[in-house]
Amino acid sequence: MLWVDKYRPRTLDKVMVHTEEAQRLKNLIAQGDCPHLLFYGPTGAGKKTLIMALLREMYGVSAEKVKVENKPWKVEVGARKIELELTTVSSNHHVELNPSDAGFQDRYVVQLIIKEMAKNRPLDVVGNKGFKVLVLNEVDKLSKDAQHSLRRTMEKYSAACRLVLCCNSASKVIEAVRSRCLNIRINAPSRDEILDVLLFIAKKENLVLPPELAGRIVLQSNRNLRRAILCLEACRVQQYPFTKDQVVQTTDWEQFITEISNDILNEQSPKRLFLVRGKLYELLTNCIPPELILKRLLQELMKKLDSELKHEVCHWAAFYEHRLQLGQKAIFHLEAFVAKFMSIYKKFLIATFG
Amino acid sequence: MEEPDLEELEWMAGQQFAQEQQDEDLYLDAYLPAPDALASPAIPQNPKQTSQDKGTPAPTILIEKPWSPPPPPPSREALPTSPREQGGAPAIAVEPPVPCKLPYRRAADIDGEFLSITGPAGERVYAAKSEVKKESYNSSGLVKGLLSQPIETMIQQVEHAMFEQVIAASEKKEQEGDLQKDAEAPTLNESLWVEKYAPRSFTDLLSDEQTNREVLRWLKQWDLCVFGAKQSSTSGEVQASLRRHVSQKQGRAPRGGPFSYSRPSNWSHSPGSNGTNRQSYKSSSDTFLKSEPAKGSPLSEQSVLLLCGPPGLGKTTLAHVAAKHCGYRVVEINASDDRVATTLQAKILDAIQMKSVTGDKRPNCLVIDEIDGIMGGTEGKGAVDALVEMINAEKNLPQQKENEAEDGFIRKGSKKKGHTAVHRLSRPVICICNDLYAPALRALRQVARVHVFMQPSTNRVVSRLKYICSTEGYKTNARALTALAEHTECDIRSCLNTLQFLNRKKHSLKTVDVASQVIGRKDMTSSIFDIWGEVFQRKRMRKGAVIQGIVDVPDSGGGQDYKDFARLHELFSNHGDYELTMDGIHENILQMRYHDASLQKTVEALEWMGDSDMFGQCIQSKQHYFLLAYQPSMELLIRRLVAQEERPQIEWPRSYQRFRLDRAVKKEMISSWLAAMVASVSRSVSPACLAQDIVTPLLSILSPPTLRPVASHLLNPNEKEEMVQLVDTMLAFGLLYKHSKPSHFTSKTVYGGELQGVLVLDPPIDSLVKFKDHSVGHRELSATLRQMLTHEVFLLPSLSCLLAVATSSEKSAEAPTADALATQGRDVTLNASVGDCPKTEVSGNKLLVGDQSASSTLTPNIEVGKVEVKKHQPYQSTNFFERFKKSGQNDAKLKGELATLQRDSRPLLYKFHEGFTNAVKRPMLVRDFL
After folding, report:
1. In this structure, how many other beta carbons lie within 10 angstroms of the beta carbon of residue B675?
2. Residue B13: is it exposed, middle or buried by C-beta count within 10 angstroms (0-12/13-18/19+)?
3. What family does the entry list (chain B) (predicted)?
4. I need a surface site. Which of A275, B283, B431, B652 has the fewest CB within 10 A?
5. Per-residue pLDDT tens for B378-434?
6. Strand partners, B760
7. What is the pLDDT of residues B158-204, one digit of tens each?
8. Are the beta carbons of B522 and B489 closer than 8 angstroms?
9. A contact test, residue of B603, B658, B769, B903 with most A CBs within 10 A
10. Cis bond leading into B763, ω under 30°?
11. Measured between CB atoms, does A87 come within 8 Å of chain B?
């Protein structure tokens, strides 16, 4: 078992990074009930950890007894019959699922599952809550249709179930849904917090972790706790005892983007742009989100850029990122950014060096 | 003997009638009766009959003649005419050796038939009857046989046809009269001009002459196969028609002229049925005919003709006319028929094997119209394939045709192969399409002979239009007609329809109408490659090429630019698939050579593409379809930036499609990986973060460099701990090492041998970090280690138990128990492995080869079969665990360790609770127990 899972805090009391939020959550459910919740924040911040701890707090240890089910659902929409298969993780008390897996039919999934849960409402026995919890992941990827259908269902079946929504960006969740939930922002842990966690783990594992190395891992991780811990473990596996100047591995796609940025800086021509396009396609193929590619590429380019240009390049990066969100074909916008950068950079080079 | 006479007679007649006033009465009177006499053969031959009066001088001449020496056999005489020309003296007229023209005194002087003539004075003379030659350039009504049918028959036919028409019309009127009394009869009777003025013969065709000839020649090549050896005779016909075609280019040939289009019904025999015609033309040499294949040579390699071109140029008409011209009966299959593979095949077979029973003895010619409209997808493809198969069958058997040509069709392979009867084509097949590059036609294109139709010249179209307009009494001028023809791109069908429409509305055609929107423009869809071509290629500006007809639209300020814009806008919006268009532009834009020093144009073009994409997204997600109207302008804008005059090399946009496919595969892989994970792990990760954050470190964690590739019993406790950790992680993430492909020889390899196939991770998560041209920095485990891990993953539960037992035995010095336990364990696993051997193949193999004694114990167990195994198992396993637990209870220290172990292997224990006895069932090696 990886350290990420091994040292994941199981209860709200044990959390190390978002202690304040954890405490509030604990107070919230101390009354025995809770409103709908919406957790949002960047990846690797601890949203899911908190949700899991919350569930345990609510239902006790039995909430941790989960099983994975691959269940076929049959939805009847008028005369049409839709069959879809969804993977759910569920315990006796809750169901977790990723409704965006259902693609454009996500709306039916959301309604159906909530109704199902409402039908099988648990009996109000002592020690049992009168409701189940439905955890919906990646709500921001739900279609607008599904989100709109969610808002009515949320109210209608609120007696039977509580929704815990989880997403990266609350801005993509419609206002109506947001206002029906208690919004909890889980921000990325600060560097110090990450460092603390790393040291804690090292101590538990009886490792001697040089602070320099720990600092580099923290820096590398981009305030992503999951990555920091994985990185530490990878370092441990690759070389132990640790040394100060040990290589801290970056992820492959980041290395690849570094390569791309070098390509761009070396030559600015349509031919090179074509090469870059191929590499961008590769990145996208490997399921790296385009926003992340753009962000990372900008960071890499910034490292080698004259300060004169930085402002302008940032401006354009934001510009194309916005267009990227509005559009569908990420490659067009990524490529447009690269072309724009090439254009700016080439002009700059000509102006400076003639 | 007769010929000179004839000429002379004619000449004389002409001359004489011209100058009859100058000639003296005597001669005229004497001569005139002769035609009369000829025309009236009813006069009896009796010499003693009296006749009517005549001028006095005539007898003199007639009487004179016998006095002259017996008439020389009239060879040829231009002479006799000249004296008469010169003067009117009777003496001269009498004297020369014309007499053969003149009546004889005695019937005996005439050989052959004669007529008797009685003069006014009662004299009797005899005139020789001569036959008039049929072929004459003079169209004198007296000559018979010039027409193929006698005039009476023709008149009869015409009358009959008119009669029938009248009857039909009256019947129609009656019927309609029943329905509505005061319906306007003339409206209903008028047929479409397109039908009315459709070319009926080869010479009327408007299409390009070259194409016409090629089609005809191709059709002619079938003669040998279809008509037997009749090639030369028909070629005469073709030539004749061509000659006529040259001579009277514009005129519509009279129907049913001397060379009737209907082939003699006994076409299979009688090679020289119309030999007389042929002979007269034989001398002239035409290069076009020389190129025809020699007699007896097999059919040309392309046995199907594919005509393609834009609509309205007369492809179908050409096919019909040419087939008719060559004596075929046209069988047409068009888009309105059912055209799935089986029905089409049946229809083709019908067409090429059958003959019409209704008297029409001509062989069939199959015309498949609108073949590109054959359904896409498997059915339509099957239909075209069926056709192609026949064509190919044809090619394989060129030599058999000679013998069997008379049958009309040939079944191939019934003797040789027996089961598949492939039919080959023995009748010409003409396919017609608009889009040559339709996907359905791909196979056909390669085997067929392709003719691309060009637009006929505007002049030709206009002159025909003019002719039709004048016939219909519709007033127009050439300029307007030219404009119309240009506007419709020489689509004669739409021209005619427009004209008829205007005629009916009593409008006159004006140039302005054509240019404005009064006349509907053809909704042309072009292929996607044309669209891309338009985007990347700019036509060279030709000032002279501006057609005058269209320019004078009052409000077109921009002139050429405006027109260009309008045309392209229409073109782009007609195509409609903006997404594909943009993909193509994106794919190809970087290969274009436009001048762009600082990539400014590229940036702009890419921004327009992005805009188009955003529009598309908006349209899709919000159903704002009105935004579609703005899509063509993006294409136009990009065109403005990048269009060059040189011809671009355009490729189909594959990379985006490939990218989407690849990504779908990877996404699928990730989701299946998620499903394979232990629930406690999978619930805390999302697919996105798997790819972003987890894969890279996980791969390094899974390949520890410190692990030695030695047997597990040789590892020190620390290493063992590490190993257990690793295996545990793999299990938690649902990862296994598996053979890349299960091959047979792997099962036979000796354990420890290096050749076990390549072991790869399953699911192949390492593909997530593979980038082209990027060296992956991950260490990979050696093959032996992977092998070991595979093994360990299967073994894990036992291993962890064993680990505990081993440590406990060390500490509590309970060696015998451990030994016994080990042997028991072995038995258990052996039994178990017999039970589910196929399930764990790899370890099963190792088991077989691993221990000789093990295999010896194995054999009886196999015989006992499953029942025994099942009987043994519960007992053994409970025993196993009891021992295990007991040993744990014995030692307090051990108990703590076991607790930690149990905690570590929780997922497995969890499974055990669910009734899955993984812990015991796994096959094991003996050496693992040592």
Report:
1. 14
2. middle
3. Belongs to the activator 1 small subunits family. CTF18 subfamily.
4. B283
5. 555 667 777 777 777 655 554 444 444 444 444 433 333 333 445 566 778 888 887
6. B738
7. 888 888 888 888 887 767 655 554 444 444 556 777 777 877 777 77
8. yes
9. B603
10. yes
11. yes
